[in-house]
Amino acid sequence: MSGSTIAAVSTPPGHALRGVIRVSGPRARELARAVARCPEPPDLARRGFWRGRFDDGRGEQPLLLLWMPAPHSYTREDVAEFHLPGNPYLLDAALERLFALGAEPARPGEFTRRAFENGRIDLLQAEGVLALVQAANESERRAAAALLFGGLGERVTLVRDQLEELRALCEASLDFDETDTLSVPAAEIEALGRRALEAVGTALAWEERREPLSALPRISLVGLPNAGKSSLFNALAGGPHALVSEHAGTTRDGVAAIWRIAGVDCRLVDTPGIADGDLDEPDRIAQELARAEHASADLLLWVVDAAVPGNLLEVAEHFDAPRLLAWNKIDLPEARPRPPAELLEKELAWAAVSALEGRGLGELGDRAAALLGLAGDSGQPAGEPRLGRELSLRHRHALESSRRELAAALELLASGAPLDLAAEALRAATDALDDIAGRTTPEDLLDRIFARFCLGK
Ligand code: GDP
């Protein structure tokens, strides 16, 4: 347990209905007593919440006090949460009061760091929290959830148990010489070793397959057949990737390519045109796949033939994800220059383009970037896009070195080398795995990981 008591605003900056100040540490109880004026005196021996007023020294503010005594809190320390009006000026006054009474300003991520150091969560989970807090779009959110709940931790624990058992066997055999009855059969050690090796391999394969956290933002092209989706796809992705055809309905399967907007790679998917009515089996399946793709897209790029727009309001009902309208084929003389007013009334973002002549594509990219929340010049989307890749690399690196050490141990065992050498290699294999949960992670790496959290988390 840390000696200090930390405090920070844990809600985003700015005006809101409610702002939360979180306090954690041995003096949280005393601080809560000093500032909370509640009609019913809080019983801080148990978990609970009380309404009252927060005395910030200059005045009183409406307060909801949440009290979580150690060890039943996020940090496993005494934690008080002061829910106050979400007014930066009032929150500052309240925070200043807590500092004056002896709390210390929390560093970014310090609450989560304490949760980690007090054994409440492991590093893998801390990373999941971080990724979740920073998720800037749906795919990052999904990937963060995979980190938090995805089961890498369980897989690693399984391998670790097997390694420990193996090492225990080797070490037990060490204590007895050959004449002794307890000498462990080599075959048993070998079988166990092979099983552990397989389990590391499975964990590694799983981690490699896992959708990377910074999975690219997904953009799906949608629209009626012949609107020009495939042509636009090719124009945006910079090459003839997709099938372009004058006959309606030629794109049955989704085709994907990279569209780079605002310096960020996005995954652009061309899907079959919307079709209703009687469909043959392949078309029906294609429509279903397309719908699944649309449902998981971060942005739908809705392509419309400006010369033959069709019933736009009806088509619009097919989609509920964020949409960007590509008003296509404006090079045609019969094209209408802009979408009808009743559509634009719905605050629909749009750009006039010609996939054929490559007109308006920059503007379309700018609109997409704005809708996806990608940063303008920095070339990086909001929320640390490379975080996922970095975390995944860390896990893979650890799994790979564990596998290497384990393979070396098995080789030593097979060649009849002294058992203590094999036991040593097995220990190294376990240490490498422990790196994933943060048990053996060097302090400076921990500092780096936690420094990426926001203040108050
Ligand atoms: P999809 O069915 O929506 O994928 O549409 P395609 O990309 O296959 O295009 C259908 C037809 O429209 C093709 O003959 C294209 O050449 C034509 N087309 C697509 N974009 C444009 C454009 O911007 N201007 C003109 N004039 N024709 C286009």
Core attributes:
alpha/beta; binds guanosine-5'-diphosphate; six-stranded mixed β-sheet; single chain
| Percent helix | 40-55%
Ligand inventory reads: guanosine-5'-diphosphate
Query: What is the string of helix and strand elements?
Result: EEHEEEEHEHHHHHEHEEHEHEHEHHHH
What would you call the structural class?
Answer: alpha/beta
The order of strands across the largest sheet is: 3-4-5-6-2-1-7
Which regions are unreliable across 5 or more consecutive residues at pLDDT < 50? 240-253, 376-385
Number of helices: 15
Distance between the termini: 18 Å
Overall pLDDT confidence: 80
Topology summary:
Layout lengths: L5 E4 L6 E9 L3 H8 E2 L10 E8 L4 E9 L10 E8 L1 H13 L3 E2 L4 H8 L5 H12 L3 H12 L2 H23 L11 H24 L8 E6 L5 H9 L17 E7 L2 E7 L10 H15 L3 E7 L6 H5 L6 E6 L12 H4 L4 E4 L8 H12 L14 H28 L4 H19 L5 H9 L6
Parallel strand pairs: 1-7, 8-10, 8-11, 11-12, 12-13
Antiparallel strand pairs: 1-2, 2-6, 3-4, 4-5, 5-6, 9-10
This protein binds guanosine-5'-diphosphate (GDP).
How would you briefly describe this protein structure?
With 457 residues, the chain is of the alpha/beta class. Helices cover 44% and strands 17% of the residues.
Structure description:
- The chain is of the alpha/beta class and 457 residues long.
- Helices cover 44% and strands 17% of the residues.
- The protein contains 15 helices and 13 strands.
- The chain has helices spanning 28-35, 88-100, 110-117, 123-134, 138-149, 152-174, 186-209, 229-237, 281-295, 312-316, 341-344, 361-372, 387-414, 419-437, 443-451; strands spanning 6-9, 16-24, 36-37, 48-55, 60-68, 79-86, 104-105, 218-223, 255-261, 264-270, 299-305, 323-328, 349-352.
- It has a seven-stranded mixed sheet. A six-stranded mixed sheet has the order 9-10-8-11-12-13, covered by helices on one side.
- Helix 6 (152-174) packs antiparallel against helix 7 (186-209), helix 6 (152-174) runs antiparallel to helix 14 (419-437) and helix 13 runs antiparallel to helix 14.
- The radius of gyration is 29 Å and the shape is flat.
- 39% of the residues are buried.
- The structure holds guanosine-5'-diphosphate.
- Guanosine-5'-diphosphate is lined by residues 223, 225-231, 244-246, 251, 273, 328-329, 331-332, 354-356.
